Amino acid sequence: VQLVESGERRLQIGQRLRLSCGMSGFNIDDYVIGWFRQGRGPEREGLGCFSSLEDRTEYLKSAQGRFTITTDIPKNQIYLQMSSVTMDDAAVYYCAARPRTGTFHFCRKTDFQHWGQGIRVFVSA
Fold first, then answer.
1. Exposed/middle/buried for 24, CB within 10 Å: 0-12, 13-18, 19+?
2. What is the pLDDT along the chain (125 residues), one digit of tens a residue?
3. In a 10 Å sphere around its CB, with 0-12 CB exposed, 13-18 middle and 19+ buried, how is residue 57 labelled?
4. What is residue 31's three-state secondary structure?
5. Is residue 12 a contact partner of residue 28, using CB atoms and an 8 Å limit?
6. Which end of the chain is less packed: N or C, by CB atoms within 10 Å?
7. How far is CA 59 from CA 8, 24, 123, in A?
8. What is the DSSP letter of 86?
């Protein structure tokens, strides 16, 4: 399982965030893909998760209405978008994958076994 994040790293307040996660080495139907981020705090924050087989996307409460997850399955890409960043959105953003079965939780961080290297996003005034 390989996950590689990419995208614009340096943004100004109010600009759009759009990150990509390239996926390889696994069948996406067998996995749930999640987006997470780690800002200044000690905890890695969950943003949302996607299941191709279930055609299901869920967002964590703090991310609802701000982030959008989309996919291009033929290109093995999953995207994270947000329309208008603030200084608080500066963080390292990760995509992660977990097997689709084996847990009752859809987007619990500790269930994710495979992580990308992360992409650090800087936000300036």
1. exposed
2. 999 999 999 999 999 999 999 999 999 999 999 999 999 989 999 999 999 999 999 999 989 999 999 999 999 999 999 989 999 999 999 999 999 998 889 999 999 999 999 999 999 99
3. middle
4. strand
5. no
6. C
7. 22, 23, 23
8. -
